[in-house]
Amino acid sequence: QVQLVESGGGLVQAGGSLRLSCAASGRTFSRCTMGWFRQAPGKEREFVATISWSGGSTYYADSVKGRATISRDNAKNTVYLQMNSLKPEDTAVYYCAADRYANYGLGDLRDRADFGSWGQGTQVTVSS
Fold it and tell me: Does the pLDDT of residue 5 top 90, yes or no?
């Protein structure tokens, strides 16, 4: 099991940038695919981005492709999500997640059911 704590959310104007961080603890972090999901009010939690255990493969939702960059530092047990050119529709609670398999996977996981550990979330609000 991996414990996750997100930080870095806040209020930003449209067109601005934020970098979210996710600090992880637990022995299996470096074997896990890590992901970011988000949930806007009244909507389902949706996939944003994932990164393989090595950081060598990354995957993005079409809605953030070209504006988001996911990265990880296994030495620091931390995952990041850099968001640029933010839009009001990016407003949501952003959640960090670790996959439930911890098996050095390829990273292409987009279903919430594939993730077994979740952080408490960090609010991102983009004003127009």
Answer: yes
Three-state DSSP class for residue 121: coil
CB 34 within 8 Å of CB 72? yes
The token duo for 50 is 């994932």
Quick: pLDDT tens for 23-55: 999 889 999 999 999 999 999 999 999 999 999
- The pairing of beta strand 122-127 with beta strand 18-25: unpaired
CA distance 79 to 6: 9
Tokens of residue 76, six digits: 């620091």
Provide the 3-class DSSP secondary structure of residue 128.
Answer: coil
